[in-house]
Amino acid sequence: MSTRVLLCDDHALIRRGIRDTLNDAGDLRVVGEVGDYGGLREWLRDGGQADVLVLDINLPGRSGLDVLQSLKDTGESLRTLVVSMYPEEQYAIRCLRAGAFGYVNKGGDPGELVGAVRTVAQGRKYVTPEIAQMLVESLTTPEPEQAHDKLSDRELQTLTMIASGKRLSDIANELMLSPKTVSVYRARVLEKLKLRNNAELTVYAIRHGLVAD
């Protein structure tokens, strides 16, 4: 019996690429596609059934991290694999703590994605060697907490989006929030990181590997 996979990503082209990669594997079958949390809840309410949810972090409205927490709170049995463009060193641990079974980068090899879905479908955690090393190092030589570790998931998301060059209005539209709410998140980030403006936010994000240089 093939493993049933549900995709949750707001970019149709990305979903198509993932769908083709998984369906070509032979033992995996994409049974549904949704673009946001609302679509995911509707799909589940309508009786949709899947073994693995492939989830993006950056979704409109509720982020992938919010979705993970919601699935945990509602007791959903879906095993979730996060597939994201964001750097592993900052988001993988957060996702695993939020209930994800694994984390892979969108820029990785397609074969890695197939292997990750198979692993998660078996009820096992999937981590790359890089993430495994991070976990070992965190246990043996705990690093001092960095300022951005104190940010909430939404604040961290706002930081990375600003650092990627997006305007507050763009962020508001993408996250389905009001510009005022995004401004509040930005103000909190500036205060917690003791920074003054977007330029300093961008430098901070690049320096700490939160976005690509």
Description of the structure:
It comes from Inhella crocodyli. This is Response regulator transcription factor. Pfam families: GerE, Response_reg. Keywords: DNA-binding, Phosphoprotein, Transcription, Transcription regulation. GO terms for molecular function: DNA binding. This protein has 213 residues and is of the alpha/beta class. It has 2 domains: 137 residues, Rossmann fold (3-Layer(aba) Sandwich); 61 residues, Arc Repressor Mutant, subunit A, CATH 1.10.10.10. Helix content is 52%, strand content 13%. It has 10 helices and 5 strands. Strands 2-1-3-4-5 form a 5-stranded parallel beta sheet, with helices on both faces. It is globular. It starts with a strand and ends in a 6-residue tail after the last helix. The mean pLDDT is 85.
CATH top-level class of the largest domain: Alpha Beta
Chain-averaged pLDDT: 85
> What's the order of the H and E elements?
EHEHEHEHEHHHHHH
Query: What is the percent of helical residues?
Result: 40-55%
Q: How would you describe the shape?
A: globular
Major sheet strand order? 2-1-3-4-5
Number of domains: 2
Q: Which fold name fills CATH's third level, the topology of the largest domain?
A: Rossmann fold
The count of helical stretches stands at 10
β-strand percent reads: 5-15%
Structural class: alpha/beta
In angstroms, what is the radius of gyration? 17 Å
Supply the CATH superfamily name of the largest domain.
Response regulator
- How many angstroms separate the termini? 44 Å
Largest sheet: 5 strands, parallel
Count of individual beta strands: 5
In CATH terms, what is the architecture of the largest domain?
3-Layer(aba) Sandwich
Low-confidence stretches: none
